[in-house]
Amino acid sequence: MHLAYPAVLSALLFCTGLYGVLARRNAILVLMSVELMLNAVNLNLVAFDVWLSRAAEETLHSGQALTLFTIAIAAAEIGIGLAIVLAVHRNRGTSDIDKLRDTAEGPEPEGPDAEGPGTPAAEKAEASA
Amino acid sequence: MNLAAAVHLASAPPVPHAQHGFLSPTGVEIAFLLVGLVTLGAALVTVTTRQLVHAALWLVVALGGLAVEYLLLTAEFIAWVQVLIYVGSVVVLLLFGLMLTKAPIGRSPDADSGNRWAALAVAVAAAVALVWVVVDAFRTTWIDLDGPAAGTTEVTGTFLFRHWVLPFEALSVLLLAALVGAIVLSRKARADADTTPAVHGKEGAR
């Protein structure tokens, strides 16, 4: 098999994930795009490992070993990431990463949580409390 | 100059398969191409659809297609690990996350943020650059898929437990740390939920 096929597919998948990370607004969709990027890297590692394991006399199969480690770390990452997203959702009532601007340095000094769309929910909570 | 470089590469020793041609794709290459198109299409739908649950389900198609690609590359063990971990647990976790954050079932018009055109420009530029570099670098390189498979369970077990034992064990410690971390994060949120009115009152006062 020509090595360019898996390499090009991996590059295109990585850029798809890159677009998703940059353009998505929901935090869980961003996590899905991160998974796509990790999988693109995994495909690259496997393809190059299969190529090099033929070319070399002795090989450690480091590409496949790294792929397995990446899969395990991705599983850990998705668990921690979803725990963080759920904690943010419980505290803020949203998983919209465009609204999480507490540490943003911008033209508005107060940040959008002073006049953003999160304020009516907080006011409602205050009224109900 | 490119042609000269290509000729030089083609005559170089690390290319033992100079009898391959661009215009005679093998059956494995055709299968790889078709599955790759399905995978890429599913990935594109995943990052562009406005229905959040559909994005997770299309992610299943993309990850399953990648498992088939691993099978075509004779990395069998990684293909099954991919199916087990990604399709089996990661997507289920994502679906649970979507449900627990009360994601809208239908079309949500604000799935994409306002900088999607900048993101599209960055992604297209990165794709063009990466594909150009990769094709230019590996245009005369072929993977030899004949012979024994490169990633059977036996081969995987041998290299994993002969050369990579220490990272493997360190990884188990990392998984334990991730488990404990996820539990701690969830517990903390639940402890905060008891004092939710006070927190909301503070936020409302602010």
TrEMBL record, chain A:
Its EC number is 7.1.1.-. InterPro entries: NADH_UbQ_OxRdtase_chain4L/K, NUOK/Mnh_C1-like. The gene is nuoK. It is found in: Cell membrane; Membrane. Residues 97-129 are annotated as: Disordered. It comes from Streptomyces echinatus. NDH-1 shuttles electrons from NADH, via FMN and iron-sulfur (Fe-S) centers, to quinones in the respiratory chain. The immediate electron acceptor for the enzyme in this species is believed to be a menaquinone. Couples the redox reaction to proton translocation (for every two electrons transferred, four hydrogen ions are translocated across the cytoplasmic membrane), and thus conserves the redox energy in a proton gradient. This is NADH-quinone oxidoreductase subunit K. It is a multi-pass membrane protein. Belongs to the complex I subunit 4L family.
Automatic annotation (TrEMBL), chain B:
Signal peptide: none annotated. It is a multi-pass membrane protein. Its main location: membrane. It comes from the Bacteria. It catalyses: a quinone + NADH + 5 H(+)(in) = a quinol + NAD(+) + 4 H(+)(out). Keywords: Cell membrane, Membrane, NAD, Quinone, Transmembrane, Transmembrane helix. GO terms for molecular function: NADH dehydrogenase (ubiquinone) activity; quinone binding. GO terms for cellular component: plasma membrane. Its EC number is 7.1.1.-. NDH-1 shuttles electrons from NADH, via FMN and iron-sulfur (Fe-S) centers, to quinones in the respiratory chain. Couples the redox reaction to proton translocation (for every two electrons transferred, four hydrogen ions are translocated across the cytoplasmic membrane), and thus conserves the redox energy in a proton gradient. This is NADH-quinone oxidoreductase subunit J. It comes from Streptomyces echinatus.
